[in-house]
Amino acid sequence: MESLMIRRAPVVLVLVIAIMFQTSTQICLGRQIPSTGISGRPNDDETSTTQEVLKSYWIHRDHPDSPASAASAYNTSSHSERIAEATRRSLIRADYFSRRVLDASSSENFDSPVQAVGGDYSMAVSVGTPPQQFIATIDTGSDLVWLNCKPCIQCISPAPDSPFDPTLSSSYQEASCTDAACTDFPSTCVDTGACDYTYGYGDGSSTSGVVAYETFTFTALDGSQIPVQQIAFGCGQNESLNGFSGNDGLVGLGLGNFSLPSQLSTDFSDIFSYCLVPFVDTTTKYSTFYFGVPETNISIYTPIVSNTVNPSATYYYVNVTGISVGGVSLDIPADTFDISPTDGSGGIIFDSGTTLNLLTSVPYEAVVGAFESQFNFPTVSNNASTVCFDTSSTTASTIVPSIVFHLQSVSGAAPVDFELAPENILSPYSETVSCLTIMLIDSSPSIIGNMAQANHEMVYDRVNGQIGWASTTCT
């Protein structure tokens, strides 16, 4: 049980990255996120030096300081409208996950989600020789790295930057038909020897272009540059993407062979972590992201579970053994979150790119029913797709029932607890209404989204196949 403090007229966040590398000295990307009058950004010289760690700062996609904000409706939309848009994105994303797992041809479809699984966060990337600068969506639910590229038949518009120009880069190299980067993609080799790719989506979106290799360059604080060569990426030349504007491409952090972590794992420890500020925080703009061994004392871990029926579903599945609300264990069948041995459906994943927490009917009804019975505020009807409450009489002493996901421990002993604090459970919809961050979905997998992960230090230890966390203050 914890107390709830309702913030009035909050500003919605959705994060953007400015990435940094560190070797024996701290290293940062050669691009700073453009903005006018940004304040409160951490100073690079105030951070500690850690060997082989990539560090970045994240800010929400709809924040006015985000490079994507010029292409968004942030300045003209209300808080409730932005919540509704985040809800829409979460549902579309969940639908794509389900389609991809169940699609009989999914093993031939590279995990390159756009609108359907486009994440809430973006990162600054520096590509080519000499480097060209871009802003790309980052996503734990996908693998492919791709950017707008010239010659552009139809590229993302509006976008923060001009498309990548291969003719200006001495390190650009198209993949040959025999390269793994071509044979492992759903690609087609043409008469010219180029390895072309095309990805289509259930909502009608598509992206296509050429599979290529490039150097991703990172710049040290002392001005020296750290090039990472031969990164396979999609040089996108024809993009038909619904609702995907304000970015130059996408960078996947999934478990597939061509995600950024997988391609950097030979140079850095195959671990990444982040600490997200609460969704409604109006004072702290930036969250942190690390790639490499983090400075952490995390001791709580749960195994990453493989979808053996569909290995191409390279999501971060975990094994939830139960859920409690307000300290009361719910009557949810033990196999509710199992992955189906028949078609690979089901399961539950941690996902940084989904805003809300999405549950299928059995756990959803149990959680919401228990919460409503313990939270003594009237429900209200509005345009939100989640259960909302009239919290106009809320005080600092108001008790919000805790919600705890019990997960399998790495040792196989007693389950470990992933606990949601009040700010993970309720989101202000207006000055007098707050809504649950938990939503019903018809399809699977279920999703523990970024609102639940806020104020948790999250560690994706891909070396040991486990995810760890610790409750903290990310602001």
Automatic annotation (TrEMBL):
Family listed: Belongs to the peptidase A1 family.
Domain Peptidase A1: 121-470
Short name of any one Pfam family annotated for the protein: TAXi_C
PANTHER family in UniProt: ASPARTIC PROTEINASE CDR1-LIKE, OS07G0603500 PROTEIN-RELATED
CDD domains assigned to the protein according to its UniProt record, in alphabetical order: pepsin_A_like_plant
Keyword tags: Aspartyl protease, Glycoprotein, Hydrolase, Protease, Signal
Leader peptide range in chain numbering: 1-30
Protein name: Peptidase A1 domain-containing protein
InterPro entries: Aspartic_peptidase_A1 (IPR001461), Aspartic_peptidase_AS (IPR001969), Pepsin-like_plant (IPR034161), PEPTIDASE_A1 (IPR033121), Peptidase_aspartic_dom_sf (IPR021109), Plant_Aspart_Prot_A1 (IPR051708), TAXi_C (IPR032799), TAXi_N (IPR032861)
